[in-house]
Amino acid sequence: MKEAIIDKTTTVNIRDVDIPAPKQGQVLIRVVASGTNPKDWKLPIWSSEHIMNQGDDIAGFIEEVGEGVQKFRKGDKVAAFHEMMSPHGSYAEYAIAWEHTTFHLTDKTSFEEAATIPLAAMTAALGLYQEMKLPLPWSPAEKRTPLVVYGGATAVGAFAIKFAQLSNIHPIIAVAGKGAPFVETLISREKGDTIIDYREGDEAIRSNIKVAAQGPIHHAYDAVSEKGSYVNLGAALDAPGRVNVVLPAEEGAKIPDGISIHRTMVGSVHNPPAEGQVLGDKEFGAAFFQFIGRGLAQGWFSGHPFEVREGGLGGLEGALKDLRAGKASAVKYVVRISETEGVQ
């Protein structure tokens, strides 16, 4: 089969490898479409250990199931979150995922739309619910709960807004730039939601957040985590306040007393519970992926806007380089594996 490897220069090398076999608790998926993520070009730069098939967003058909798998059988239409930093990712004809990070799709959802969901949506969900402990969609907020989402047009930020809506969390204060028109389609102005333009500068961001909150504000999800975004959020929150970031915060960042910064690590859905815990992120992920699948089937949840890059894996390098150049706004780049040269 064909598989794509990303190196530290964001060059994509397509090679021929054997089709992997699923282990106990795993499924083998024939990949129809794969989504892309910023980490796919960033990690190979950070370490030579990360020069590999970085694809983590899978949409396709079950080809084979490993021992003990109960929910899936060959031919099922599915989406899945591949275990990050493990072999056999989604930039290939076939990929491996664990049963608990795989969910069924109906004909209502295209493979391309589904390929925008797993990594970004679960990153948003973990930050909001497992880490911030905000009200879950099936037990929605009953009182005013202001939430800042920095990077509302990014996939993680947009999914955070969608989940917050399901949880009746308002006002949602979304920080965005040229993607603001897309973010406008996600928020509820009648419930106090608003959009702040980060291009107005640091002081404007901080003051506008406070004005929009109309009272104390303690929660912020930073889906960008670059160029001082979390510093501005920290300055705008009231103690005790919490900022969840998706990238490591710089050492020495000036954060006021009473405000804490925590990094959301989506890979935790593949880990067993921490010592002393009965359940952890792994069980949350298993339940929430099924929740997402139900939402897609019933029409109250949707994926992120996407752009299909031509050429299958042959178009992956251009997509990742455009991600690296910051050209993606309110869009996910997706590749169709069948369009790859040499794939039957």
Short description:
Helix content is 26%, strand content 23%. The protein is an alpha/beta fold.
Give the tags.
alpha/beta, Quinone Oxidoreductase, Chain A, domain 1, 2 domains, 7-stranded mixed β-sheet, 6-stranded parallel β-sheet, 15 strands, 26% helix
**Main beta sheet strand tally, sense and closure:** 7 strands, mixed
Computed over alpha carbons, the radius of gyration is: 20 Å
Percent helix = 25-40%
CATH C-level category of the largest domain: Alpha Beta
How many β strands by DSSP?
15
Cα-to-Cα separation, first versus last residue: 10 Å
Helical segment count: 9
Average predicted confidence as pLDDT: 96
CATH superfamily of the largest domain: Medium-chain alcohol dehydrogenases, catalytic domain
* Number of domain units: 2
What class would the helix/strand composition place it in? Answer: alpha/beta
Secondary-structure element order, N to C: EEEHEEEEHHEHEHEHEHEEHEHE
Q: What do we call the CATH topology of the largest domain?
A: Quinone Oxidoreductase, Chain A, domain 1
CATH architecture of the largest domain: Alpha-Beta Complex
Relative strand content: 15-25%
The low-pLDDT segments are none
* Apparent shape: globular
